[in-house]
Design goal:
The protein is mostly helical. It has helices at about 30-40, 60-70, 70-75, 100-120, 140-155, 170, 190-195, 195-205, 220-225, 225-240; strands at about 10, 50, 85-90, 130-135, 180-185, 215. It folds into 2 domains: about 1-125, no CATH class; about 135-255, no CATH class. Helix content is about 45%, strand content about 10%. The radius of gyration is 19 Å and the shape is globular.
Length: about 260
């Protein structure tokens, strides 16, 4: 099967030099970000939109609103197959006050699947099947999220709430997809140099047999270590990763 991995990603940072044409106010609101995602896909031809839940308020009904507002476009460009929307979630190990947002995001993935199933019919693919975890420093952080999703989001579907009652999946429907990908965002030299260990542990734990992605930050390391040292650091990291996984697609941040 041909693997379709995005080559470009819009990071949804509201730091435009001028107020965007689609924004109603100087502060970009939730509905503006829906329009921004559509504009990135349709006009800029970006293949992946980051849905940034880390440190900001976003619309949890983004899939439903995109389909409702831009039905014709998304009927021709299937979300999850031709173009992608990937949440960046808070890291509970670092952002304690935002930790529950991670769980809310995981719980919303099956709901997004149900919406896509109604929109696309039998040819549905998961519209959201991958998450980015910022400030990843070890493999346990990303394995933990993948396992939580399987055991507590999907896993509850076979449970009953009291003896003799129907299963939750009979009550609320199936919980799909059955598993998700969790991609680490590596932002320090220590985590980047440890990338082969992080990747190999996750790949073995989750039985990944097709491809894997690792997001290597660039702008923050450049601020911390300097531009040229960051370039060398990225090259060393990529070289080390190549020895671990041949089918590796590492997004690299743009330094601006």
């Amino acid at each position: 099967m041909k693997i379709n991995v995005s080559r470009t990603m819009s990071t949804q940072h509201p730091d435009n030099a001028f107020q965007p044409f689609f924004a109603e106010n100087s502060i970009i609101g939730g509905d503006d970000e829906i329009t921004e995602a559509y504009y990135s896909f349709s006009h800029l031809k970006v293949k992946e939109q980051l849905w940034d839940i880390e440190g900001k308020e976003v619309d949890n009904f983004v899939i439903k609103k995109l389909f409702a507002k831009y039905e014709s476009f998304f009927q021709n460009m299937q979300l999850g197959k031709d173009i992608f929307l990937t949440p960046r979630v808070p890291n509970p190990e670092v952002e304690k006050s935002e930790a529950k947002l991670l769980l809310e995001t995981l719980e919303s993935i099956p709901r997004s699947y149900d919406i896509a199933s109604m929109f696309y019919g039998k040819n549905v693919v998961p519209p959201i099947f991958e998450l980015y975890l910022p400030m990843t420093t070890n493999s346990s952080s990303i394995i933990r999220i993948a396992e939580y999703y399987k055991k507590y989001v999907v896993g509850k579907s076979s449970a009953s709430l009291f003896p003799g009652d129907i299963k939750i999946q009979e009550w609320c429907g199936e919980f799909l997809p059955e598993k998700i990908r969790v991609t680490p965002l590596l932002e320090t030299k220590e985590s980047m140099l440890n990338a082969p260990s992080i990747v190999s542990d996750y790949v073995k734990s989750q039985g990944v047999d097709d491809y894997y992605r690792v997001w290597l930050a660039r702008s923050d390391p450049a601020l911390n270590y300097g531009s040229f040292p960051t370039i060398i650091l990225l090259k060393i990291t990529l070289q080390r990763l190549a020895s671990v996984c041949s089918d590796l697609y590492p997004p690299v941040g743009l330094q601006v």
